[in-house]
Amino acid sequence: MLKFYPDRRLPQLRRIVQDTLAIVWIAFWAFAGWITYQTVMALEVIADGLRDTGRTFNDWLAAFRNSVPRNVPYLSDWLLRTAGDLQRHTGDSLISLSATVRQDIFELAIALALFVALPPILYVVLTYGVWRYKDAREMGSALAFVRVAQRSGRVQEAKALLAYRALATLNFTQLMKASKDPVGDIANRDYDRLSKAMLERAGLDPWRLAPPADPSRKLLASESGQAPVR
Fold it and tell me: How confident is the model at residue 228 (pLDDT cuts 50, 70, 90)?
């Protein structure tokens, strides 16, 4: 069970601000990667220039072949072979080179975009994202614990468990802030203050562990014409 935001306003607002900053960070670096990709892909004009040059050479050679007379022995064949060799080593070669350059530019654009965008995005995902998931799972587990205690009617026992857990996990500053006499609270079985501190640390409001309303009290209140006690 996951619970992504605490019950109390201030911690809830803090989580919302943190999530917003994380999203803005990811969007910024994704945009930076896209800009890098577009900038490198602009170098495709080099490949286009090579391709157009190769096509121009081929057009010239095609015009030359069309102008060669076909009835001159040996000379016609030599001129046509020479034109074909020139096309293979100039026009066709430049067109082939333009395709290779275009592919190299594309691969370079992808690599640089990933190099710019991926590390900062992964840093946030693997640090803040993992912590955020664990935090949501912890709040969800605390909420499930409270709901089970409510359904089973063992609210007081749940408060006792939370009070002992507060003694074990809270530092002394947090402990003394929660209760002026935590040892006395445990000895007197007064678990409200310590359990409250533990619930607040888990992101829950203490009212979630309030004891269920007594049906007999509701009945007496209704018979006396008073509002039922909640």
Answer: very low
pLDDT score at 17 = 95
Answer yes or no: are the C-beta atoms of 197 and 174 closer than 8 Å.
yes
| Amino acid making up residue 228 | P
Helices of type H across 69-129: 75-86, 92-124
CA dihedral 206, 211, 217, 218 (to 10 degrees): 70
What is the token pair recorded at 201? 């640390």
pLDDT (0 to 100) of residue 101? 83
CA-to-CA distance for 204 and 214, rounded, in angstroms? Answer: 23
Q: Rounded distance, CA 212 to CA 139, Å?
A: 22
Region 45-73: mean pLDDT is 70
Do the Cβ atoms of 117 and 32 come closer than 8 Å?
A: yes
Please report the pLDDT score of residue 216 as a whole number: 45
Name the burial class of residue 42, with classes exposed (0-12), middle (13-18) and buried (19+) by CB atoms within 10 angstroms of its CB.
Answer: exposed
How high is the pLDDT of residue 212? 59
**Alpha carbon distance 34, 163 (integer Å):** 52
Contact 101, 48 (CB under 8 A): no
Q: Which residue has the tokens 């969800």?
A: 140
User: Which DSSP letter does residue 171 get?
Assistant: -
Contact status, residue 91 vs residue 55, Cβ threshold 8 Å:
yes
pTM over 0.85: no
Q: Report phi then psi at 205, rounded to 5.
A: -80, 145
In one letter, which amino acid is 11? P
